[in-house]
Amino acid sequence: MTTHILVLGAYGFIGSAVVRALKERGYRVTGLVRNRRVAARVLPNTPVRVADLRALTDPSCWSDLLTDIDVVVNCAGALQDGGGDDLEAVHHLAIAALGAACVGRNIAVVQVSAVGADPQAPTVFMQSKARGDAALRRSGVSLHLLRPGLVVGQSAYGGTALLRMLAAVPFLQPLALGRVPIQCVGLSDLCCVIGETIDGQLAPGCYDLVETHPRDLAGVVASTRAWLGFEPARHLVEMPGCLIKGSSHAADLLGHLGWRSPLRSTALTVLRDGITGDPSAYAATGGRIRPLPEIYASQNCTRAERQEARLSLLMPLILAVLCIFWCISGVIGLLRMDTAAEVLRQAGWGPSLAAASVLFWSIADLALGAGLLLRRWAARACVGQVAVSIAYLLAATFVVPQLWADPLGPLVKILPAAMLSVVLYTLLEDR
Fold first, then answer.
1. Using CA of residue 88, residue 92, residue 95, residue 97, what is the dihedral sign?
2. How many independent structural domains does the chain possess?
3. pLDDT digits over 28-83, tens only?
4. For residues 178 and 175, what is the distance between their CA atoms, to the nearest angstrom?
5. Range of 357's domain?
6. Does 389 reside within a domain?
7. 20 to 30 A Cα–Cα from 408, which one of 16, 44, 102, 369?
8. Number of neighbouring beta carbons within 10 Å of residue 320
């Protein structure tokens, strides 16, 4: 009978690649996901079971989910608390409950952890990962504990997305902590090792999956830049510590609003300590993790990857510009209500109706600008901005058509702003 595998975090950066790799090996694969609609888009034709790890903190919660399962591969994870993420629940409590549930059913577990996971680590991310690893060990479940370094794949998410954003900066190469040591692992190599564990080629145990020799972050970014086909940077700009700290605080604040920026303090703290492991345990089995140059040589970089890197760099700027544009528009309408209402009064509107219209649309502009700050509302805000822009243009055409001839072009300028909202809407899809 074909081995049935349940993959946790199935539509994530690592999880989606693991699902596809295991299916190619002929295994029966089911994904555990939080959102069925996203899973259908990312992993079509893959059966899923829907659950939220944050709610699976008791072994009994896993009973139905583990029905007919032989192996569980845990690829789920979050970088930092906030925005709907709970590290202690996802990395520790749910995984401890999983181990207790699996051991009584003779289900093996493959745990994808991280190099540097330690109870004394400086970040909650690494601490909670370590507590989950320890709980699985204590449970007595058949366990393969895999601890990858910086995972590099064809697609980009988290750390690899940050690498590509940095590499996409034209002419200059801004860099912080450029000398910290990094050891990478190809996503395809990680998938291969997971396949080996399920095939029975790799004994249960703990394995750091990293290239043999570390390289500094500056070298990793330079290699990424070369793979993307961008010109080498003319100047290296070392970012000052105060700017790095300020950026991480801003990213943390946005994290509470749902934006999962790779610049959050957890990522920078992990990076500051280096991303290194000990490859000897896996090497002793005869296995080999390819170095970064070989990883990139095996991956074909297309126009899509180059565009994604550039657009990822531009997206925060587009978001900020639109937020400021709509908020300022609303504020000006409120501060200069009489002037704006006068335009409508000259078109024959009554004073009360003109003032009410200006007030309503000023508040709408403020709401649409502020809506961009909340990740879960950002896409709706973009749609609203386009709709309101069209409404402005149509209303002005019929009520005050002379504004089209205004030398400052107030109506003409609405068009590029609306198109920028369309661009941002397309960039907000993160899976």
1. negative
2. 2
3. 999 999 999 999 999 998 999 999 999 999 999 999 999 999 999 999 987 776 66
4. 6
5. 315-427
6. yes
7. 369
8. 11
